[in-house]
Amino acid sequence: MLAGEPLELVWYGALLLLLGSVCFFMFLGLPVAFAFFTATIVGAFLFNQDDLGLIDMPAEIQKAITKFLFTPIALFLLMGEILLHTGVAFKAIGAIDRLIARVPGRLSIVTIAGGTVFSSLSGSSIANTAILGSVLLPDMVKRGYHPTFSMGPIMAVGGIAVLIPPSALAVLLASITEKSISQLLIAGIVPGVMMATMFFAYVIIRCSINPNLAPAYDPDTSHLDNPIVIQLNMFGGSKTFTYDKRRGVKRFVNRWLPFWAYILPLMMIFVVVVGSIFFKWASPTEAAALGCISATAACYLFKLFNNKIKISGVDGADFGWREMHKALKETAKITVMILLIIAGSLVFTQSLETSGAARGLLDALTAWDLTVLTALFLMMGVLLFLGAFMDQVSMVLLTLPFFMPLAEKLGIDPIYLLVLMLIVMEVSLLTPPFGLLLYVMKGVAPEGTTLGQVVRSALPFVGIKVLILAFLIVVPEIAQWLPNQLKDNVSAPPGGGAVIYDGDE
Predict the structure, then answer these.
(1) pLDDT of residue 497
(2) Can you spell out the DSSP letters for 239-300?
(3) Residue 435's pLDDT band (boundaries 50, 70, 90)?
(4) What is the mean pLDDT of residues 109-114?
(5) What is the total count of domains within the chain?
(6) Is residue 274 part of a domain?
(7) For residues 389 and 434, is the Cβ–Cβ distance under 8 A?
(8) Which of 2, 177, 198, 253 is the most exposed place for a label (fewest CB within 10 A)?
(9) pTM for this entry
(10) Residue 472, pLDDT above cutoff 90
(11) Residue 281, in any domain of the structure
(12) Virtual CA dihedral for 276, 279, 281, 282, nearest 10 degrees?
């Protein structure tokens, strides 16, 4: 190769060189974004002319990260951070705990139910797992639960946040591939509910067959017999209402009151976000903004329970400028990290195109005359393998330049493909040696818990997730049904006329 001339390699040589560079730099401990940038510089030096091909890189980076499409990521993250730092999530788990009576594996069931609810609000798998682990794991360990039914459900349901809206990763994938954010957010609901249902079934069946896995106990219900007291401290006065008559009424109200006070307002946030998207009343960005406003309003309502409105069995939340500052700070940190990774991956994709690696691999795969089913299993198999050694964002951004053109050639619905990729991202959170939630759980588990115990406790739930993935590959109509409803749900002005807004952003 002469100075200033591009290196000529067969496509698989260029592919191996570029992908190997990314993996090598990440192995050295370089952050994901900078591993992509460094590999791009290597590719620009080898395959481009004109000042090493780097002149346009700053402009391309700016173009990559200043798209309005990425706005929902920050807003959905902020919504979850507000609920996390005000402590509302902890109170929601307590409200669910009151509702669930004697069932096999009771605390595991509480974990799955609480985790599913919080997933629909936070969109953060790490926060979901950390909260459930810190709140519920000590009690499960104390009552002699087998690790599979104490740590396992916490990690399994923590990953559902990848699928159920508001999922920041779903917004990320849809934005990068320039597909409908609305459809991808909605498409994750059915697979997420399927997983939660299968987790419920697995826990109940296993614990019914072998009760020693999750020893039964009688939960303390003495608080249900307490008088119902509501004290209003408003408008310069105080008024108290007390009910202490019929025992059945007291037990019913005391059991359900925390649910009405905590869960219903929180579920209204989910309804506002998903409903406004599904019925096309708002774009994903507007829906995310509405979610932040709803979360702030809900937390202010919970703050009133501290002093203005005191209800027996219902505690208030900490909500003020300090909590909002923490939420904004954490949102900014995570958003900047995501945008850096996006910028790095997109400029890296250009190196793949320039070197001919992307086109060469696509032509080779097309020449194999793959069926749709074979191609899907092949793509998901590659992702499952990469997910054991790479973080979720990296493995997806690394493969998107190859998978999306292949899906287009084979006529695979891109939203359906992205849903499958989200499921694999969820599975990879629990696959050793680099499954992120394994280490989160190790951090909140009791002292002396080994990583091997954590991994073994997650394996049955990994198997369930893989089975659901395979089922959705074989029966794609289930994953496609809800987004197809969104396509058909076109709003028009009364009496006909043109559609003003189609909900896609």
Answers:
(1) 36
(2) EEEEE-S-HHHHHHHHHHHHIIIIIHHHHHHHHHHHHHHHTTSS-HHHHHHHHHHHHHHHHH
(3) confident
(4) 88
(5) 1
(6) yes
(7) yes
(8) 2
(9) 0.79
(10) yes
(11) yes
(12) 50
